[in-house]
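Recall that a protein's primary structure is simply its ordered list of amino acids. Everything else, from secondary elements to tertiary packing, is in principle encoded there. The following example makes that idea concrete.
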Amino acid sequence: MNRPTRSSRAAVAALATLALAATVAVFSTVGSATTAAIQYAPQNTSEPTISGDARQGSTLTTTNGTWRTDSAISYTYQWLRCNAGATNCANIAGATAQSYTATAADVGSRLRATVIARNSSGTSSATANATAVVAATGPAGQIRLSNGQISIPASSVAPPDRLVVSQIQFSQSPIRSRNPLQARFRIQDTRGFVVRDALVYATAIPFGRIVQPPETRTDQEGWATMTIQPTRLLPLRNGFLLTMFVRARKQGDDILAGVSSRRLISVRTANPS
């Protein structure tokens, strides 16, 4: 077998050295390119902010924020709907413009906007702080109840709208004794809003069949709850009706005008059990 000469061994060693140098050069070039992309992609220096009224039907607009960059930037946008605590956010489908109009689906939620900045070296993003909780359109002082209804103060009801005695409940029906019982009257307005702080008055017709309860203010869910104390003048027999006059009004209004409402109701009595 022929042994490699000293000159041939030197040539092989030289080729290996050249190959190693070329490999190092390639990896160095790739690493430098990656570092450049990270270093010169847009870098946010001031977060975007949202302007506008957080209310159904109102238009909100986000700024771009400020960015450090080595080349021209283009921007795209994505609006998000979050819970009232501004967490659990999710993209709003199709909401990819710089401005967004709040919808009924946003009522009770908070909104954020993500700004995506792109330049020739890469992409970065920044998200604006959340808006206030989005309110529904409609009267001042409205509150969304857990059942989805909107509660408004009586002060937000004005002509031509009026109060309405919409629901009635008695803890005894029929009434079989002269023990105290609870009567509840729910007040809404002609637009369907639940009305709180309305004043409700109820009396028997003819007078004297119950002890007159005081005028009572409705709670947040629109209910005025009264204690009804029958007197000995209330007959307890099958088929008899206790008739009552119920009035709802706004404090400060004329009791016969303004937004006040009146209704006649009745509840059966029966022989004592």
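The chain is about 15% helix and 40% strand. The chain has a mean pLDDT of 88.
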